[in-house]
Design a protein that fits this description.
- This protein has about 190 residues and is of the alpha+beta class.
- The strands form two sheets. Strands 5-4-7-2-9 form a five-stranded antiparallel beta sheet, with no helix packed on it. A four-stranded antiparallel beta sheet has the order 1-8-3-6, with no helix packed on it.
- A hairpin with a 2-residue loop joins strand 4 and strand 5.
């Protein structure tokens, strides 16, 4: 190994060490049984001991979550229950631990049980995608868990950066409702012909 190669290697190691892993926490609410929360995160360099999890179940106060991690649209892992991923987890909480993950862009998803991914390809969607949305307060999860709260709480540990999902503004909801109303009126007109 030449001195030039040694210096180049040392510089690369220094740059890799400069991108510090961090912890991120996000929380929010879902409204319907088929909502899927998506949280992008990045690893600037190959990483070890990456943990992503949700304590959304909150010992029965909220919904039973399913989590998955995706890279370039391909599933890296999916989990239903993991009470041991972090202190304070309860029986139906969920998350994934990776001994190593390569640098890149990832997506962490949280869905209600049993809205599993349809395949190992994100583009194939989730089991409940084509269901009529049911408000969580009116829906019983398959494990007979009813009267669910709609809060989720997510933790990412050992990642370089993470972005919370966008929060819809009230104007967005108004536009959505107006659009649905127009579609309903059009359907009634066609049916009346």
């Amino acid at each position: 190994m030449s001195l030039k190669q040694f210096i180049a290697g040392a510089a690369l190691c220094a740059l890799a060490g400069a991108s510090q892993a961090a912890s991120f926490n996000f929380s929010g609410q879902i409204s319907f049984h088929n909502d899927v929360v998506q949280i992008p995160f990045t690893l600037d360099a190959d990483a070890t001991d990456v943990r992503v999890w949700t304590d959304s179940f909150l010992d029965g106060a909220n919904f039973d979550p399913i989590t998955a991690v995706w890279r370039n649209g391909a599933m890296v892992g999916q989990n239903d229950d993991d009470a041991h991923i972090a202190p304070g987890q309860t029986v139906f909480d969920s998350g994934l631990t990776f001994a190593t993950l390569p640098a890149g862009h990832y997506l962490f998803t949280i869905a209600t049980f049993n809205n599993f991914a349809n395949s190992h390809t994100l583009a194939d969607g989730f089991k409940f995608d084509h269901d009529t949305p049911v408000p969580l307060a009116s829906w019983c999860q398959p494990v007979s868990h009813c009267d669910m709260g709609h809060n989720w709480s997510v933790h990412l540990d050992g990642v370089s950066s993470a972005t919370p999902p966008p929060v819809p503004e009230p104007a967005s909801y108004a536009m959505l409702l107006a659009g649905l109303g127009m579609l309903g009126r059009a359907a009634r007109r066609r049916a009346g012909r």
